[in-house]
What does this fold into?
Amino acid sequence: MKRFELIFTFLQLPVDYLMLLLAGASAYALRFSPWIIAIRPVSFAAKLSWERYWPIVALVAFGWLIIFALSGLYNTDPNRKLARDLTRVVMACSTGFAAITIYVFFTLSKFDSRFLVLVGGALSIALVSLGRLLLRGCKALLYRVGVGLRRTVIIGNEKIAKTIREAFLGQPRLGYNIVGTFNHFNHASAGAIRKTKPDEIIFTDPKGSEAEALAAIEFANLNHITFKYSADLFATITANMTVSTIAGIPIIELRRTRLTGWGRIIKRLFDMFFGTLLFIIFIPLNLFITLIILIESGRPVIYKNERVGQLNEKFFTLKFRTMYQKYCTGPQFGRHGQTALKTEAELIKTSSSKAGPIYKIKNDPRLTPVGRFLRRWSLDELPQFWNVIKGDMSLVGPRPHQPREVAGYENEHRIVFAIKPGLTGLTQISGRSHLTFAEEIKLDAFYIENWNLYLDFIILVKTPFVVVKKTGSIV
It folds into this structure.
């Protein structure tokens, strides 16, 4: 799911909440308007002042959001129908109204104004619906000017493919930009598809061979492209999936990970909150380490190491420098960085404890005394909380590797690029450097396919204990 769609999915929550608060405030203002007072004087002003009223409205509005969620109003399907959404708004608000009525009845509470409940309920339906319409209108307007469109490839030569293609071309509000159409998936079309850099592939040919469809799925997985197919294509695929409708045709989306839609939003909020909290907590320790490094070996204190992250995008991880400057690799150190690469290559040949595309140099002679201590206790990675806050990394996920390591990956290893790399992960609490590369990939694949917030929490809690025990540490 594209970031553009995630933003609008998330915005539904605060917009709905604000509309519910506005409905409650408007009902209260109407009750105290002169023309309503003229019909029926206010008798509860002292018992239900604004100061007592608004906290109740804020709490009730939060409860209604839960009802909205249970009603499917925060479904991540970008193609869901407006009429269906508005119907669910009416049903959800009616359920909320009924819940308040039942509460008042069973608690035998004497509510001071039935007007507030009735008008508030009616206004909530109107205002929440208005908020939804405004969001959809804004999204459709951005689609029309070419912002946020999903680059889409359609594979198939049957009537279904033609119907979907015509629907996309005739309805820009759907948010699709067709960047290629192909009759079949084969070696030639795979190369052409890759050049279009699509966000998703729709496989529509119900007469296409199962082998062809499975090859297209594997291609989509390796390139981290959303894969969708016509529901009547074949029924043997089993995976995490969601069903939506495009131009009246049921379309199934296969998902390699749960970290899409709300899963991705929740994980990002989790990272922002705890990443910022931990960054602040460790500021005194970071300042102390900075001072020690400056005294021992001077500047720079922070080492920028190029790594490969989500969707093969390169970024720089931030670490405390643990080596002497003359041994530090990378563009940050200019000509010395190139010389240091040759030294590192020799050490990898003679002292690496890992087989496969990645390396771990045991008893690394390039480390400073302070650097050796920082590595042993994983303190050199504290600056990466800033990578988490920026969004380059997550608190939990596969560890990012260097481009020259990634160059040696096999196709099955590239699953790790499906999500953001992590500061810690299932690999780090399961043996760290004692694991083979194949074992690391299996653990990362398990995490990607079975992610949940509880798993993230458990990994975070276990990480400091693993560090203290120095399980699998290599310095």
